[in-house]
Amino acid sequence: MAFGISRKELHRWKHEIDHGHIAFLTHFWLDDRFPNSHCVTKVGCKDIDKLAQWGSRYGLKREWIHHYKQYPHFDLMGNIQMSILKEYGLEDHIERFKIQKT
């Protein structure tokens, strides 16, 4: 279950993906399969090859791409989430969603 973001933020993420950009969206998230994670960062791009190449820089495998409707994306959690958000200057995501190193 996703929560903690506005429709405007979701639409902006989709717009960026639709235009072939690598786009980031972090939101609170609860899933019993991941009891130690309270949020996820979705990194998406309409261009699957571009997204796969981006992910390979961080050890993410092409087969880990979620092909959700027309918004393919990687789900990031934990230390890799923190590391990538810092690298892209998205400290506001870290602060807003209280992401901590695990």
Structural overview:
By secondary structure, the chain is α+β, with helices and mostly antiparallel strands. 36% of the residues lie in helices and 19% in strands. It has helices at residues 7-18, 48-56, 78-87, 91-96; strands spanning 2-3, 23-29, 39-44, 73-76. Strands 1-2-3-4 form a 4-stranded antiparallel β-sheet. The two termini are 22 Å apart. The mean pLDDT is 91.
Which percent range describes the beta-strand content? 15-25%
- Give the averaged pLDDT, no decimals: 91
* Poorly predicted spans: none
Order of helices and strands: EHEEHEHH
Number of strands: 4
Number of distinct helices: 4
Distance between the termini: 22 Å
Strands in their spatial order, largest beta sheet: 1-2-3-4
The biggest sheet, with number of strands, parallel, antiparallel or mixed sense and barrel status, is:
4 strands, antiparallel
**What percentage of residues falls in helices of 4 or more residues?**
25-40%
**How large, in whole angstroms, is the Cα Rg?**
13 Å
In short:
The protein has helices at 7-18, 48-56, 78-87, 91-96; strands spanning 2-3, 23-29, 39-44, 73-76.
Which features does this protein show?
single chain, alpha+beta, 36% helix, 102 residues
Protein topology:
Layout: E1 2-3, H1 7-18, E2 23-29, E3 39-44, H2 48-56, E4 73-76, H3 78-87, H4 91-96
Antiparallel strand pairs: 1-2, 2-3, 3-4
